[in-house]
Structures are given as structure tokens and as C-alpha cells.
């Protein structure tokens, strides 16, 4: 029997298998297979230069670089595995034509790796959007927001630099319309010097916040002088002579008539009006209205500027020019008032005279004149001699009329007057 037991090879194999089976049963009972899921593991990227080195950039889509990893292994092995043991990687040199990169998971503990039955991830690929990498130069625009108190105006804004560059995916970079540095003007009465954050704006005026866009500078130092203001009138005249047969009926007030200026207090105190030279409004040979637009900034002192941000400095000057109108009026002798007749003297116009008054001027004014509105008169005191005495007889004397603006008398109107001294009773 002893021989049979010690020399029977088949029996030995059965014994070994039985022992192995018993060990497996024991292992499954005391150290069973189990699974553990490790959530939100970040995929590490390898060889990204295979994209960026070609002047391209990438963007991960659909959060595909964050995965959950499930490990199946004996329970005592799982107890030894931590998140730090799991290496989740995507090698960009394995990029596919549809812009995906395979994800692989490794265990950094070789001893434990042999005990693991399986490792699975809930995502197989990192999905990428690949674009050209673009750099653009942008001018930095300083924008003043808010309002200064009444009586103050902002001067010319300056900044330490007016250019910057932005870089990133082409679609993101090209969505930027402007680079803006904002300066608040609310309640400010003195010069401003601040470091302003640079904001990137789209075409609709909305700020773009995109971590994919890199700015060469983040902020800029800005200086804004703040000046007191003062309102002054615009004064002007004209040069030249209008065409024969025409007249200047009026000069319109400058438009605008007053201008707000700004500057240091001692500078604007010296300016009480803005005087425009007459050469700016030349009426030589004009036969119609003449208008000139003048930039009044060139007539301001060097240290004084425009105090209204909505005013561009352009002032309009206008002269009204019309053909000269003429009218002739018959003056009745008995309608002439004789003034300053001395006591005991009689003064009367010689009967039978044809008194015709010729007027010229603005048509609309002449149209309102009639013999009823004229007030012809003459002054006898102009006939006194050097001693202030009068002598009886007939004399030539000027008849005058009161005329409105825009009309003048073409020639003197002369009449014969008779002076008679009355006898004293």
C-alpha cells in the first residue's frame, strides 16, 4: 500500500489539483474578487508638442479628459490601491484623423499590477478641437465711463502704451473686436492716474472672458487730466464786398453761439470770447447767402481746449445776402412835420413841390413801409445864421424820415420852405 501511495503518479496529480482547488475555494471565501471605481481622474497629456509644434492649438471637448476608472481585483489588493497609483494618460502622438486620442490606464505599482484582473475606463478617447494658433495686435482704447460734476471736463487721455497682443485659438482671437481700459469719471474734480484692467470686447460690446486667450499685458497705466470749464461767446465779422446790386441783410449768430472751453483756471480766466478773424467769412462778390464752417480750436490758446466732449469744435458762420430792393414814395407837403419853429415866425413848405423819397434795402422790410408809416420831418433850427438869428425868405431844407434797420435813403430829399416873421401886436 505504501508503495502504491508513494509511487502512483496519477494519484499525485489528483492530490495537487485537489489542493489547488481547496486553496482557490479558501481564497474566494477569505479574499474574494471585488471592484472599486475611482471617479474624476484627470487624464495626463503626453507629447502635446506634436500639435502645438505645428502652430496649432487644441481644446478638450465634452470634458473628455476627466474619466472614471474601475479596477477589478482581490479585495486585499484593492485595499492597497489608491488614486495616486492610477496613471491615466493620453499620448498626443497617437492622434487620430477624427481628432481623438486613446486613453490608457497604468498602475504605478508593478507588484499590485500582477494581481489585478482588469482595469476599465468609462471613456476610451480624449476628444479634441484643433485650430490654428493666432496672434493679433490690438490698439488699447481708453474709455471714460460715468460723468464728471458740472463745471469740469476731461482733457486728452494718455496711457503708458496703446498697443497689446493677444494669442490663442484662431476662432477665439478673431472674436475680439477691441481692447478697452475703462476709467470712471464719477465725482472726479482732479487729475486721474490709475492702473486700469484691460478688457477684451466683442463686436456687440460684450466682454469676452476666455482662458484660452493669452494677453501680452493685463492692465495699463492711464492718465486723464481734469479741468474746470467756462462758457464764452463766439465773435466774428466778415471781409469783402458783395456783388453790385446786392446787400448784406444780416449776420446770423454763430452756431453754436457760445462754446464751453476747458483748461487750468489761470488759463481760461484770460479767455472771455473766441474771436474769429473776418477772413474766415469772405463775402467778395457774393450774390447769395454765404456760410463758412470754422474749427475754432485753432483760435484758442495752446493751453485751452474744448470743454464739451460732444462738440467737435466746428462753428458755422452765416451772412444773409439778397438783391437790393428799391421803392419810391410820394411825400405830401402837408404830411411833413416842421420842427423848432421860433416864436412869432411862420414856417411852411412852398406849395406845388414834387417830393419823392427813394429808399433801398431789404425787400421784406421795404414791403412793410408805406407813406402812412413814414414820418417825414424837417428842422427849422438848421436855418439859423452864425448868431442864431433867422431871416425871412425861402430856403432849401432837408426832409428826413425815420427808417427801420435794413433800409436806407438813396439820396437826400430837399424841399423849399418859406419863413415869414409875424408882426407883434
Describe the structure.
By secondary structure, the protein is mainly beta. The protein has five domains: 1-30; 31-123, RNA Polymerase Alpha Subunit, Chain A, domain 2 (Beta Complex), CATH 2.170.120; 132-224, YbbR-like domain (RNA Polymerase Alpha Subunit, Chain A, domain 2, Beta Complex); 228-323, Beta Complex (RNA Polymerase Alpha Subunit, Chain A, domain 2), CATH 2.170.120.40; 325-421, RNA Polymerase Alpha Subunit, Chain A, domain 2 (Beta Complex). 12% of the residues lie in helices and 45% in strands. The protein has eight helices and 30 strands. Strands 2, 3, 5, 6, 8, 10, 11, 12, 13, 14 and 15 form an eleven-stranded mixed β-sheet that branches. Strand 12 and strand 13 (192-201) form a beta hairpin. It is rod-shaped. The model has no long low-confidence stretch (mean pLDDT 90).
Amino acid at each position: 500500500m505504501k508503495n502504491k501511495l508513494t509511487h502512483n503518479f496519477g494519484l499525485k496529480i489528483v492530490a495537487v489539483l485537489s489542493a489547488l482547488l481547496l486553496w482557490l475555494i479558501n481564497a474566494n471565501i477569505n479574499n474574494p474578487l471585488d471592484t472599486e471605481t475611482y471617479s474624476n481622474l484627470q487624464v495626463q497629456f503626453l507629447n502635446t508638442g506634436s500639435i502645438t509644434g505645428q502652430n496649432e492649438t487644441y481644446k478638450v471637448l465634452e470634458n473628455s479628459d476627466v474619466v472614471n476608472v474601475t479596477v477589478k481585483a482581490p479585495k486585499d489588493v484593492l485595499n492597497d490601491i489608491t488614486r495616486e497609483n492610477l496613471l491615466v494618460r493620453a499620448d498626443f502622438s497617437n492622434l487620430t484623423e477624427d481628432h481623438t486620442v486613446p486613453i490608457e490606464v497604468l498602475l504605478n505599482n508593478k507588484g499590485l499590477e500582477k494581481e489585478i484582473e482588469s482595469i476599465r475606463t468609462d471613456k476610451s478617447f480624449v476628444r479634441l478641437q484643433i485650430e490654428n494658433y493666432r496672434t493679433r495686435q490690438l490698439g488699447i482704447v481708453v474709455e471714460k465711463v460715468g460723468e464728471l460734476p458740472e463745471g469740469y471736463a476731461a482733457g486728452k487721455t494718455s496711457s503708458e502704451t496703446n498697443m497689446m497682443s493677444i494669442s490663442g485659438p484662431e476662432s477665439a482671437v478673431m472674436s475680439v473686436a477691441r481692447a478697452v481700459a475703462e476709467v470712471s469719471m464719477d465725482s472726479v474734480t482732479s487729475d486721474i492716474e490709475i492702473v486700469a484692467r484691460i478688457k477684451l470686447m466683442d463686436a456687440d460690446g460684450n466682454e469676452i472672458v476666455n482662458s484660452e486667450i493669452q494677453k501680452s499685458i493685463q492692465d495699463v497705466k492711464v492718465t486723464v487730466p481734469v479741468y474746470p470749464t467756462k462758457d464764452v461767446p463766439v465773435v466774428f465779422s466778415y471781409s469783402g464786398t458783395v456783388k453790385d446790386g446786392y446787400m448784406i441783410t444780416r449776420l446770423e449768430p454763430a452756431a453754436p453761439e457760445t462754446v464751453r472751453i476747458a483748461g487750468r483756471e489761470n488759463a481760461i480766466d484770460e479767455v472771455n470770447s473766441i474771436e474769429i478773424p473776418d477772413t474766415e467769412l469772405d463775402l467778395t462778390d457774393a450774390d447769395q447767402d454765404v456760410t463758412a464752417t470754422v474749427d475754432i480750436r485753432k483760435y484758442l490758446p495752446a493751453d485751452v481746449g474744448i470743454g464739451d466732449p460732444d462738440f467737435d469744435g466746428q462753428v458755422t458762420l452765416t451772412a444773409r445776402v439778397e438783391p437790393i430792393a428799391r421803392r419810391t414814395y410820394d411825400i405830401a407837403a402837408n404830411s411833413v412835420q416842421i420842427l423848432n419853429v421860433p416864436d412869432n415866425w411862420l414856417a411852411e413848405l412852398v406849395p406845388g413841390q414834387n417830393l419823392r423819397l427813394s429808399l433801398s434795402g431789404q425787400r421784406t422790410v421795404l414791403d412793410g413801409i408805406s407813406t402812412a408809416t413814414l414820418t417825414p420831418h424837417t428842422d427849422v433850427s438848421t436855418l439859423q445864421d452864425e448868431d442864431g438869428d433867422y431871416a425871412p425868405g425861402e430856403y432849401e431844407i432837408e426832409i428826413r424820415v425815420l427808417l427801420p434797420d435794413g433800409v436806407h435813403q438813396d439820396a437826400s430829399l430837399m424841399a423849399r420852405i418859406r419863413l415869414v416873421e409875424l408882426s407883434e401886436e
